Amino acid sequence: MLADEIKKAFGNATDLIIRPFIIDNREITLVMSEVLGSSSYVNDFILRRLLIIKFQSDNIGSELLNFIPTNNGKILNKLSDMTDYICMGFALILFSDNESEKAIAIEARATVDRGIPIVNNEASITGSKDAFNENFNTNIGLIRRRIRDCNLYVDGMFVGKSSKTKIGILYMNNIAIKKNVDKIKNKLKKINVDGILDTGNLKSYLDSKTNFFFPTITSTERPDKVAQALLEGKIAIVSDNSPFVLITPTFFVDYLHTSDDYYEKAINTSFIRIVRFLALFIAIFTPALYIALTTHNQDILPLSLFLNFMEQRDTVPFSALIEALFMSISFEILRESDIRKPASMGTSVSILGGLILGDAAVSAGIISPIMIIVISISAISGLAFSSVEMIYALRWWRFILLFLAMFFGLFGIFVGFIILLASLVTTSSESLPYLAPFSPFIKEEIKDTIVKGNHKKTRFRNPLLTKNRIREKSE
Questions:
Q1: CA dihedral over 308, 291, 273, 394, signed as positive or negative
Q2: Mean pLDDT, all residues of the chain
Q3: Between the CA of residue 449 and those of 158, 255, 262, 435, what are the distances in Å?
Q4: pTM
Q5: pLDDT tier for residue 168 given thresholds of 50, 70 and 90
Q6: Could you give phi then psi for residue 16, rounded to 5 degrees?
Q7: What is the 8-class DSSP label of residue 118?
Q8: Are 442 and 424 in contact (CB under 8 A)?
Q9: Cα distance between residue 198 and residue 136, in whole Å
Q10: Is there a contact between 105 and 29 (Cβ–Cβ < 8 Å)?
Q11: Angle at 244 between CA 240 and CA 249, to 5 degrees
């Protein structure tokens, strides 16, 4: 029997409910997953209706489908389709129709996700506070609440041979370039793995291979950020069971922006963006610059400042590079422990560890006070960005420039800067230049990069993302 085949396919799983009934002198069997299906929905809207049905013909399937109230019902013939629908939270009604066994799949999903949470990683002062959760439909709804336009297309597919994770590709049909959308779809269709459990798994298949450090796909928990990106002609990828949505393509300048930038006055936003841009250089170059000036290029420093540095390092038995590496690695350990420890412990452990570590290292003569200041400024500047991948990229380049400065001084820093710039110039995001709108130079987009222009002067969208460039009509 079909019910036995389904039971065998699931390996006699204990959460599989198989309940036979005799309805109007006909045998009907209900099959559902106890953990994925809603028992109350099945009892109230399926079984109650089945008890009063009177079959008028031998076409049982059509009568059942018309009699049971559902907006998502389907008649199934294949065993593989039946098991798939059970795994998606559907309830199956098995019946015999002209000596063949079939099933009707009726959506009866249980609520197994949390409600809409508040933003955690990308906190905003003046923006909205709602964030994505692990429910696919909820995440789509949060975006549609902000873009109430039928041109917002959602193309779905399932990825992963075992996980069969539902993926949604969102784009504005009247804004996004169709070629960019097709490119994303083709990449997703080529994924042939057992399971995709999160958007983090998808990033490794979609991310650009032209850069080892800097991120080329944005991962966000903010619906307003996704809505803004869609209106610019970008593409969003929503995955079931993931509270983060991917945005592609993204450019380097996007990581210097936050959601608050579009809720504040242009003059205030411009100041904060300049601070972030300076923080980018401080995070990468400050330790390397200190090492270069104290080991190779002392003649550049004023004599009094140089003597002050040497006096502080007089009792330190290690080179400046060893000092910097020790402090940098210590900071990364403290940061990692602060992230991984339970939230109930607060930040007291990391603060206490930092204070004790710094004070004890200076008192023991292992680290000079100026090195603690240099590494602290560099590390704190790196935390000015909300993207974790951007923070990791800055960390890698900080270490690279440390070694170049130790062996070659300021010349090494200059060479490192040229390599960094060349790396960014040659990076692409979905075949689009990563450094746009600086390279290639796009006049209209420059008005919303480091300095934010008046919205009346930014009426045009990025030509790399859309052919429908008019954002708004001039008054």
A1: negative
A2: 85
A3: 37, 10, 12, 11
A4: 0.83
A5: very high
A6: -90, 120
A7: B
A8: no
A9: 11
A10: no
A11: 105
